[in-house]
Amino acid sequence: MTETGRRERKKAATRQALADAALELFLERGYDAVGVREIAEVADVSVATLFKHFPDGKETLVFDQDADRETALVTAVRERLAGQSIPQALRQLLRDERSHRARTDPRLAEFVRLIDTTPALREYFRRMWLRHENALAAAIAADTGLPEDDAGCHALAHFALEAVALVRGRDDAEPALDQIFTLLDIGWTGTMRESTRRDRT
To answer: Where are the alpha helices (DSSP H) in the chain?
Structure first.
């Protein structure tokens, strides 16, 4: 492994250790009761190192995979299978993510409850989701050749992401998501068909 590779691996490990320490403390004692100095101590790094990895504040320690999620959303649009619609590709991504988290994250319910019961985290989550929505809408527009401010692209991005919140806490979350994305797929396909028809006339 090259020296650059070692440095990147060490940075990733430090970042993960900080995020893990923060989440453990937040779940045990509550978000507002834990300070960044304590998180740094548990992760065995300095406060300066913590802010080097998470410069935008304590909230980002909870959402350490923010950038990865946005990348996954955009990739789902750009690299979807031939014949697969954008809503179908996004539904598949959400299905895979939810399945993976259910298998690998035994504290998922506690994590969701932490966000739901902490105003600062709820607000950060809302802002983060809006950033994802804008990035997803831009990817949809680029893929379909529509203007970046196209209302349909933004509507699809908004409701695809909002679907997760709509089914939270439901016993039938997966069937409910299927129903929502079927509705989105029908609407999106019809909109694209109508747009193509107008372009030809």
So the answer is: 3-29, 36-43, 47-53, 59-62, 66-78, 86-104, 108-116, 119-144, 151-167, 173-200
